[in-house]
Amino acid sequence: MATSLAAAAGTALEDLPEDALLAILAFLAPPDAAAAACACRALAKAASSPSLPLTLALRLGLPPPRPTPEACPAAARRLFRSLHRLRRLLGLWRRLPSAHSASPSLAAFEWAPRATLAASLLAPSKHGFSVSKSPFVTLSIAESGDTVAALGEVPVCVNFVGDNHIVVEAASGEDEEEGMEGGSPPEEMYMHFANRRSPGAGRRRRERHGRRKGGRMEAEHFVRIPDAEPTKLRPLQGLWKGICENRTMEFYVVTYDDIGGVTCRRVSETGGQSSGYSPIFWTTDATFLAPPFSEQELDHYNCREHIRGVTSGHEGTRNKVVSRILCINSSYDVVDPHLSAPLDDTRNVEGRIWLYEDGTFGFGFIGTNSVIDLRHVSLDGCIDSS
Amino acid sequence: MAAAPSGSRTRMVTLISKGGRNFKMPEAVALVSSRSCREALDYIEYRGNNTMMIKLLDIDPKPVSMLVNFCNHMAAAATSAASDDAAQRMREWEERFLGDDVDQALLYDLLSAAISIQADGLIDLVCKRVAHMIKGKTPQEIRTILGIQDDLTPDQRDEIRTDNSWIDI
Questions:
Q1: Which of A41, A82, A112, A113 is most buried, by CB atoms within 10 Å?
Q2: Dist CA B150 CA A3 (whole Å)
C-alpha cells in the first residue's frame, strides 16, 4: 500500500486537478471529508465546491441533484451530507421489539425515482413464498440540501445511533433543522441526543404534532441486517424466507460469527415485549460434509416431507439435489414445544442443513420428518417479492 | 461509427506519454475501460493506419504503461464468468497492481492518466486507496501522510472552525 510520503520531485496531491480531488472526497464520509478540507487550500476548495455532491450522486448512479438556491459552500456541504445519509440507509433493517408496535419486523430501504429513498415494510404474504411490501418512510433531499423524511403525511426524523442502528420518530419542529446543521462528531449521535426532549416536554410536543396528523407515533428502532445475501465462502448467510411448521411463511436471518460458527434466528412479527428474533439453530463448526454421503445421511433427507404453505401447489415438493450437508444443533423447545421431554431436559437436538445446488438450503431436526426449505429474500441487492 | 476499410487490421488505440513514448492497446480493450474512447469512437474516422491517438503528453511513461496494463486486465476479466472466485481474484490483482512499489507521486499520476481517458474503474481504485489513507485521520495527520503543506488562509481557517468546531486545525 502506498503510504509513504510523496516523492520530492513527483506529483503532489495539490497538483491534481479539482475533478481528481472531488473523486477522492466523494469516497469519504462527511466527517473525513471535513478533516481533509482542513488539511490544505486545494482540498478545502474542492470540499466546498457544488460539484462535490454532484460527483457523489453520479458515483451512486443517481440523477444530478438540483442546485440549491443558495449556491454557497454550506449548502453544498448539506447536500453532500444528505446524499451520504441516504446511502448509509440502503439495505435491510430489523425492527427492535416494542411494547406498542405490532407492525412487520423488517424494513427495506431502496432507491426510488428522483434520488429519493423509499423504505418498505416486509411481511409474509398469504400466498406461498411471496413477500408483501407496504410503504413506510420516504426520504428525499429538500431544496436547502437537508434530508426530509415522511411517514405518509407525517414528517419524521430518521437518525443514526452509530452505524447500524436508526431511530424513526415524529419530527418535532425547527430544532430538528438546527440539529442537522454543522458538524459534531459523531454527527449522528449528536443529532439523536440533541433532538431528544425531556420526557414530559418532548412527549407533549410530539403528541400535539401526532394528533394534528391523525395519530401518535412512538419512536421505532431498527438495527441493520448486514450481509443480507450469501457468498461462496458463506453460503448460509443472509435473510431468508421459508414455510415453517405451521404452514405459514417466516423470515430467517443466518449469521456467521468470528470463530467459525453459524446461527439462525427467526424474525417474527413483534407484539408486546416478546422477542421477535428467536434462535432456531446454531453450530460452532461450519464445515460441510461433501459427497459421497453415507446411507444414513441420505436416509435422513430422503424420508422427509418438504413443508409447503397452505396455498402452495406442488411447488418445491421435489427433493432438490443436495450438494453439501452441515450438522446443526437446536433445543427441544425450539424444535417442538409439544415434544414430551422433561422440562429440565437441556439436551440439544441435532439437525441437518441440506445445501442445494441452486444455492438455497433446507433444514430439519432428528426426530422430526420435515424439511423447512429457505429461499433468498434479497438477490443482487433487490428484494425478491416472488 | 465509421466503418473500417476492407482488409484492415485490428483497430488500435495508442496513448502517447511525456517524451513521445507510445503505448498501444486494441480498440476492443480500450472500449471496456475508457468512457472517452467509447464516446470518441462515435465521431472519429479511422484513416490510414487504423489507430486512434490519445496524447497524454504531461504524464510520465510509467503511469501510462500501468494504465494500459489495467485496461488489458479489465478486458480479460470481462470475458470470464462472474463469480465469488473471480471477484476475489480481481481484489488480489488490484492489491498487487497498487503494491508497495507504487509511491504517492505515481499514484497521483496514475489518477491523472485515468481521468484523461475516463477509465472509471481505475479512477475508483486509486481514489479508494487515497481515501483509505485519509479516513479517520486528523488534518495534521493527513498533511503528514500525504506530504502536503498547510496553506490555508486565515479566512478559510475561520470558516472551517465555524462549520466544524470539533476539528483541531
A1: A82
A2: 19
Phi-psi region of A78 (alpha: psi -120 to 50; beta: other; left: phi over 0): alpha
Query: What element of type H or E holds A280?
Result: strand A277-283
Nearest CB neighbour to A40, from listed B83, B104, B148: B148
Cα separation, B138 vs A32, in Å, equals 8
CB burial class (10 A; 0-12, 13-18, 19+) of residue A243? buried
What SS3 state is found at B90?
Answer: helix
- Do A59 and A114 reside in the same domain of the chain? no
A41 touches chain B (CB under 8 A): yes
The helices-and-strands tally (H runs, E runs) of chain A is 10, 19
- Cβ pair A232:B103 closer than 8 A: no
The reply to whether residue B151 touches residue A41, judged by beta carbons under 8 angstroms, is yes
Q: How many folded domains does chain A comprise?
A: 3
Question: How many whole angstroms from its chain centre is CA A81?
Answer: 20
pLDDT-based confidence at A70, cuts 50/70/90?
A: low
Q: Which residues of chain B does A52 touch, with a Cβ-Cβ cutoff of 8 Å?
A: none
**Residue B148 pLDDT exceeds 70:** yes
Quick check: is A163 in a domain?
A: yes
Q: Does A6 touch chain B (CB under 8 A)?
A: yes
ipTM for the predicted complex comes to: 0.86
